[in-house]
Specification:
Layout: E1 7-10, E2 15-19, H1 30-36, E3 41-45, H2 62-75, E4 81-86, H3 88-99, E5 104-110, H4 121-136, H5 142-156, E6 171-177, H6 184-193, E7 198-202, H7 208-211, H8 213-225
Parallel strand pairs: 2-3, 2-4, 4-5, 5-6, 6-7
Antiparallel strand pairs: 1-3
Helix pairs in contact: 2-3, 4-5
C-alpha cells in the first residue's frame, strides 16, 4: 500500500516539485514556495515518514522515496516536472531522474551526495556513531526505531556509482554552499558526471535555500527560466 504523501500546492504553470532533506518537511522551503509559485505550479511534498506524511510499511530508503514520487506524480496527473531536491531530497531527485528520465524536465540537486564519503568526516562520524547506538535500541520504542531509520538514510544511502549519473538526461543544476557539509570536490564530481550540467557554489552552509534565500532563488529561477 503506497503512502498518501502530504503536500503544499501553490501557483499555476509548469509543475515544480520540491523535496526536503532528512528529518525535515515541506516547510523547509518557506522562502521558495511563494516566490517560485509566481511562475510555476509548486508542489512541496513531505517525504514518507516525515512531517505529515505517514511512514507506511514500505522500506525506508531513498529508492523507495523515488518510487513514492512517481506514485505522487501519477496520482496528480503530472506527466513531467522540474524537480528540486535538497540533501536527502536531492538524493531522491537524483535516483528519480536516473530511473524515470522521461518524467523530469529540469533537475536541481542542492547539497546531494552519492554516498556517505561525500559528507565531511567531522559531520559523518557522529552520524555513524549515533546510528550504531540508535540501531541497538530500535526495538525499544517506535520513537527509537524512527530515529534509527532517519540516521540509517545518511549511513546506508544512496550509494550511487558516479558513472550511473550519465543516465540523467534532464538539464541539471548542481548547487551547494561555500561551507557545505558536503565536500566541494564531491559536489563537483556529481556535476562533472551529468552531461551539460551547471554548477553553482553560493555563500553559506548546507542550508542555503533557507539561510541565503535571495541568492539561492535567483540562481534557481535563472536556471529554470533559460
Amino acid at each position: 500500500m503506497e503512502a498518501e504523501l502530504f503536500y503544499i500546492e501553490k501557483g499555476q504553470g509548469f509543475p515544480l516539485i520540491l523535496l526536503h532533506g532528512n528529518g525535515e518537511d515541506s516547510s523547509y522551503f518557506a522562502h521558495q514556495i511563494d516566490e517560485f509559485s509566481s511562475s510555476y505550479h509548486v508542489y512541496a511534498i513531505d517525504t514518507r515518514g516525515h512531517g505529515k506524511s505517514p511512514r507506511g510499511t514500505a522500506p525506508f530508503t531513498i529508492r523507495q522515496f523515488a518510487d513514492d514520487l512517481l506514485a505522487f506524480m501519477n496520482r496528480h496527473g503530472i506527466e513531467k516536472a522540474h524537480i528540486m531536491g535538497f540533501s536527502d531530497g536531492g538524493n531522491t531527485a537524483m535516483i528519480f531522474a536516473m530511473r524515470y528520465p522521461e518524467r523530469v524536465e529540469r533537475l536541481i540537486l542542492n547539497g546531494a551526495n552519492l554516498d556517505p564519503s561525500g559528507v565531511k568526516r567531522s559531520i559523518q562520524l557522529p552520524i555513524e556513531i549515533g546510528y550504531k547506538f540508535a540501531s541497538r535500541s530500535a526495538h525499544k520504542s517506535e520513537k527509537a526505531k524512527q530515529n534509527a531509520e532517519m540516521l540509517g538514510l545518511m549511513v546506508n544511502d544512496p550509494n550511487v556509482d558516479p558513472d550511473e549519473l550519465k543516465s540523467i538526461k534532464a538539464r541539471t543544476l548542481v548547487i551547494a554552499g561555500t561551507s557545505d557539509m558536503i565536500r566541494e570536490d564531491h559536489t563537483r564530481l556529481i556535476a562533472s558526471k551529468i552531461a551539460g550540467s551547471q554548477l553553482a557554489i553560493i555563500k553559506g552552509n548546507h542550508f542555503i535555500a533557507n539561510k541565503n534565500a535571495p541568492e539561492f532563488n535567483r540562481v534557481v529561477l535563472e536556471f529554470l527560466g533559460e
